[in-house]
Amino acid sequence: MTAGHATAALPRLAGLPGPARQLRRIAEDLEGGFSCVWVLPDGLVASGQARELLEELLYDMPEVLRVPSSGQLDAPADIPFGGASQVPQFDPDTVIIDDYDDGFGGVWAQVTVPSPSVSERIAGQPRRPTLLERVGKEIGQITDPLGALTSPEAGCQPVIVVCGWQEPDSSDTARLLRSLSVSVKSAGLPRPRRPRALAVVRLTDLPDAVVDSLDMETTVVHWWWGTLSRLDTATVTATARPRSRSPIGKAGHGSAAAACHRIAEALREEVITQISGPDLNLAVCLSRDWDGVLTSLVSVLSVLSGDLRRPFPEALGRTAPVAVERPPLELRDFWAAGAIDFWDGQLRGPLASWAITRDGRSTADLDAMIWQAQSRVLLPLIDGARAELAALLPSAAVHGPVRLAEGYGPRGSGQGLVAGSRAAAVESLAAMEVGDIWAAVRAGQVLLPAGEVNRLKYLRLARNKLAHRCALDDGLARDLGRALVRP
After folding, report:
1. Please, are residues 295 and 305 in contact by the beta-carbon 8 Å criterion?
2. Among residues 210, 223, 198, 203, which one has the least CA distance to residue 325?
3. Domain spanning 17-223 has what CATH number?
């Protein structure tokens, strides 16, 4: 998935957890005797990343038959090309239909050496060798390559690798997949002894509906859909930050200033991850261009999104139920163009379709994503700070821990507490929430040092805002960062 911003230097996709997982699954299916169709969005092919992923997949594969593209070799010498002198002269008004469907497609799909098309013979142009002819030339069996590969005497069971975007005729790729499926089933070969095909294709590299109608007994389809996970985006974000001079200075990495800086960086990276979703290019650009200040985020996003206004099926919503393994039919053109993907259980569209209004303001969706990112980073830290404050309560309780637990402890904790049951009271106080501790302090039931009271104030403010699904502004986020770090 790509955005409307300048392309950034991306990491090796094969080194990320999500793509590596898909490569393993494809390799396992091929090893198990299945042919595979790997459907990729157009952008991965155009950027060259599809080729890199394919090379990674094939690196340790023992028997691979890479089919040359039709432009890399001539047609077999024993296949007649035909020319204008070899065919009757047609009336100029005659309508010639190259791809006429006579209802016997299933039969003709098994023909291994198709004849030259009518238009090619009329034009008198040299015919490019078909995909099956090129497979035959590679194995030295021009007339019946699939028969040779599936015969009991076949010496090897290669993976026939086809890059769909190099094939001038998409029906050639479909014919290979279907013919190979018929051949291996007719030969009765067990899966470990079957030749397999690996077709790496874009959506347009196969005829319509073919990808959904392949024989599931012999062929597995893998889509680049939901392949990238939160972990992938977080990994790219964390490694894309340009190296710069540390703002910590002489205070040292163990200081309170260093701890505050780490919290701010964690927030920045989580916000970038949440906003970018499957758009790794956006994650790299935000890591490079955004300093983590929320007031500048919209302006940075506006520059990165540019004038991109791709249509997006908003009625579905990003949280609408969608297929996990493949994009729904009505969304495939959007997916192929890099406009949508499935990420972290959500359907994610291009940045400009949801994050920024046309007058340059943040949308409710963008605010919600900032809140989600802040909650993921800050709530565990707030709870840790709450536990530190709760540990002070037994000694800070004005009338003792039992009275404090009975009046302000978790609901119901006072029941069963009798005079002198200090251990039960201490256990109850350890579970007190930030709001209850604040109420006890305000009522004069707890005496804490001024610094701890100040910490408690910001913990309560931040916890309440996050609990009400509101993002913290820059000022409160900075104050909270200081409150989370004990001097």
Report:
1. no
2. 223
3. 3.40.50
Residue 31's contacts (CB-CB under 8 Å, 6 or more residues apart) are: none
DSSP per-residue letters across 277-295:
TT-HHHHHHHHHH--S-GG
User: What is the average per-residue pLDDT within 438-444?
Assistant: 95
323: Cβ contacts below 8 Å, ≥ 6 apart: 225
439 C-beta neighbours (distance < 10 Å), count: 16
Torsion from C-alpha of 69, 73, 75, 77, nearest 10 degrees: -150
- Strands (E) located in 103-176: 159-163
CA atoms within 13 A on the CB side of 463: 22
Alpha helices in 241-363 (DSSP H): 256-276, 280-289, 297-305, 332-336
* DSSP secondary structure letters along 459-477: HHHHHHHHHTT----HHHH
Contacts of residue 271, Cβ cutoff 8 Å, sequence gap at least 6: 292, 297, 369, 370, 373, 374
- Do 120 and 127 contact (CB within 8 A), yes or no? yes
**pLDDT tens per residue across span 344-373:** 988 888 776 777 776 667 788 899 999 999
In contact, 36 and 199? CB cutoff 8 Å: yes
pLDDT per residue over 282-305, tens digit each? 999 999 999 999 999 988 988 887
Q: What is the DSSP letter of 130?
A: P
Task: Give tens-digit pLDDT for 214-246.
Answer: 999 999 999 999 999 999 999 999 998 876 545
Q: Pseudo-torsion of CA 458, 464, 466, 468, nearest 10°?
A: -160
Nearest Cα neighbor of 49 from 11, 17, 21 is 11
Other CB atoms within 10 Å distance of the CB of residue 93: 5
pLDDT reported for residue 151: 84
Q: Structure pTM?
A: 0.81
What's the average model confidence in pLDDT over 427-439?
94
**Closest Cα partner for 282 from 219, 229, 237, 349?**
237
Residues 6+ apart with CB under 8 A from 112: 132, 136, 143, 144, 145, 146, 147, 179
Question: For residue 190, what pLDDT is reported?
Answer: 84
Q: Where are the domains of the chain?
A: 17-223, 230-392+448-487
